Amino acid sequence: MKTSIEVLSGVAAILTVATGIAVAQQLTVEINKVSDTGVGEKIGTVIISEDSKGTAFKVAISGIAAGKHGFHVHEKGDCTTTTKDGKREPGGAAGAHYDPENKKSHQGPQGDGHKGDLPAITANATGVDETIIAPKLKLSDVLGRAVVIHEAGDNYSDSPENGGGKGRIACGIVPGS
Given this model, what pLDDT does residue 17 score? Predict the structure, then answer.
């Protein structure tokens, strides 16, 4: 027969596990358009969470052209416009793709390049409503960084630059650090 303390300990353990599952961490990132003039209107959100498959990005945005768009985690949590080689670069303050191992190679979410490569997102006439998984990322990897949406799709190679994703059209800062 179990003592009252053993029973209470078991109940406490069950409640701890249940509570941990119920309050799994999830971050909401506001996504705004970016242009030569700076950060613009909010166009949606990305909800980021982690499970056994990796880090999930639930993208819900509108106001971008239909088609494929490169989607990446960038190294800095800043979406402001910068100047590079005399040209205004929307979202340039976000820096390069997140590359903690300094691979300097753009090989896609399954490749051996930088970790900031995420699966491309696809917009239809009303926008984007999909969840993508980044199996190599942990939630802690993205804290305080930026998620960036590019004008065009991504071929996950280094040529042309950014895998053909072209310029940055939207950006959001992930909370935390």
Answer: 42
Q: What is the pLDDT of residue 145?
A: 97
pTM higher than 0.90 for the full model? no
Q: Which stretches of the chain drop beneath a pLDDT of 70?
A: 1-24, 105-111, 113, 155-165, 177
Beta bridge partners of 67: 123
**Which CATH homologous superfamily contains domain 26-173?**
Superoxide dismutase, copper/zinc binding domain (2.60.40.200)
Q: Is 138 helix (H, G, I), strand (E, B) or coil?
A: coil
- pLDDT, residue 106, reads 66
Neighbours of 31 (CB within 10 A): 25
Neighbour count for residue 170 (Cβ, 10 Å) = 29
Give domain limits for the chain.
26-173
- The β-bridge relationship of strands 128-134 and 54-61 is antiparallel
134: Cβ contacts below 8 Å, ≥ 6 apart: 54, 55, 56, 57, 73, 109, 115, 118, 119
- Residue 113 has which token pair? 């390049």
The DSSP string of 2-43 is: --HHHHHHHHHHHHHHHHHHHT--EEEEEEEEEETTEEEEEE
